[in-house]
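Let's inspect a concrete specimen:
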Amino acid sequence: MTNIAIRQATFTPLGAMLVPIAIGLFVPGYSVLSQQMSELEMYATLPNVATRVAAIVSGLSIALFGMGLLLRYPRESRFTMLAAVIFGVSMIGNGVFTMGSPWHGLYGIGLFDMLVPAFFAAEIAAPRGLKSLTTASMAVSVVCLVYNWSMIVHLDPPGLQGLTQRIFSVIAFGWYSLASLAISQVDDRVVMRH
């Protein structure tokens, strides 16, 4: 069960977020350049439902990934698990509540997105000597911080908020694919040695 909880993150968080990225290309009157993905929740049935379900699936997957890490590394992954579960819950909130409600993102706890890769680097990747994974995780954490900060202080380029969100989403949710795949390969090598 632990392996499944970790390995499912190789595809699920990013795969789920690619759904609203792709759907936005086909919705009349919607701009993938200027409108954020959550704005698809305001459109007709298919874009609305697909976007909401994608956020919920992604959130559940991220929380499951965090819990899988805790089961696999109980002494080493407490902060990673906590941040992943909190961020996962915020993504579920994005799917349950529509944009404009303070419950969409659960009052900003989505900011925990930047902590997951940083905690993962400190607790899991670095102690195992995974330098490239540690560096990539820290870089993604910085990207998350800069993106979130740019939105808070309104430096996200006007008219390009949709594009910047999509680029950020591929990086941030793609990190789960990288982390899951890399840590699964490390664990597979350890098992094969024994």
